[in-house]
Specification:
Chain A has 410 residues and is α/β, with parallel strands linked by helices. Chain A has 14 helices and 19 strands. Chain A has a seven-stranded mixed beta sheet with strand order 4-12-11-10-9-5-6, sandwiched between helices. A four-stranded antiparallel beta sheet of chain A has the order 15-16-19-18, with helices on one face. A two-stranded antiparallel ribbon of chain A has the order 1-2. Chain B has 120 residues and is α+β, with helices and mostly antiparallel strands.
Amino acid sequence: MFSPENIRRDFPILSRQINGKPLVYLDNAATSQKPRIVLKAMDDFQRQHNANVHRGIYTLSEEATELYETARQKVAKFINAKTSEEIIFTRNATESINLVALTWARQNLEKGEEILTTEMEHHSNIVPWQILAKEKGLKLNFLPTIPEKGILDLSKLANLLSSKTKLVCIGHISNLLGTINPIEKIIEQAHKIGAKVLVDGCQAVPHLPVDVQKINADFYAYSGHKMLGPTGIGVLWARKDLLETIEPIIGGGDMIKSVTKQKSIWNDLPWRFEAGTPNIVGVIGLGAAIDYLNQVGMRNVWEHEKKFVEYLLPKLKAIKGIKVFGIPEVSKNRGAIFSFWLEGMHPHDLASLFDEEGLCIRAGHMCAQVMLEAYGKPAAARVSFYLYNTLEEADKFLAAIERAKKVFNL
Amino acid sequence: MSDLYREIIIDHYKKPRNFGKLKNPDFHGGEDNLVCGDRVEIFLKLNKQKKVEGVKWQGEGCALSQASASLLSEMLMGKSLAELKKTGNKHILKIVGENLNPSRQKCATLSIEALKKALS
């Protein structure tokens, strides 16, 4: 039986007080809190099994390698990758996207060819393509949105996809709006004209079951720290047949089979793309986070988060002076991420007042300035919920808005 | 009701003093806080004794940045050039709050940065 109250007991930080009030953590789209088993797995590793991986013959190194590679298998299974050879560990999703930009895209796109991203993207799915476009003389196109509905304007897709389009980069769920994008439909159309598709799954993998084979993308990137894992560990999933065609960009230890003065022979997948000692502790922490999420069940996580959409969204929309950005037509089918503007108050003031009450909310541009521009605001306030949040906390959030309005005489 | 947003802050935010522009200012400068889109621009006019006889400012952004600019504008009237140059963060933080966290300190001292730009 899914119970957020029971789940909360597994997260030591949630018993903390902030400014004398119980912590109410509502910035899960930025990063998630960590359950005890993740902290313990990382601690145990460093106390009991610490050694470098893929190196030694000795017991300790074998243990470290075994733990590291078992975690990779968990990651692969969690998103239904065909094989763990398709899982490359990076620092974060940003690095995963940049890795595709610096390898496959750089090696395959020619001057005058085009990349299609969307106006809804996080900066991490725009800036790497701007850098590459500048370097290679590519054209970067943006699929527009319908801001008031908070959705991509799919009617413009066909016109933006041409024989010149080689890569389409799209977010699975918007980190600003919570919108679930119709990625399978877009992927199908992109594949028809021979383009490859990269999906930024940062706001999806932590929250709902993701099946990369069913989605049929070519690249899928996400971060460990947003799914109960530690910071410093990200994932790039890529189809094996594609990975086999890519030259590595970072050279060094562990990514080679042999090195002579004349040349080096690359290691097998996926190690070819993981030069140097990896973030072993981070990978083990991520593996434990996946164990935890599997135990709870991703269906349950998703069903729980939908409660906030059903409960909070109508109440939030009804508050005088509040404008919630981009409410999709099918408002139930969205992530529990709500960005809004309170007339007469800057989001930073709102966040400061919330902090006095122990509430953590995000204020700023959410690394989505292109999308925010469509709403004509320099910043927004954002709340985002996860498996350990309760409806009682949603009520505290609503009460904090009323208090803020009082302080500002609104 | 709030430690940070005391009446004086809300009052200056809602009713900014010396808000506007000065024609032919002796000193003029502005500063942006790119992270949150706050902006403060200051205009100063000196009299023959080289003391401030006119202050105006304009801007947009959070209550801390705007109220601080308003409070600063009141503080600057009648000051000599030497006194203007000595006006720093501590003067504004004394009024707004000395326990601000670093990111909010930036908001509160944006007008000081604008003043420095104006004098440079």
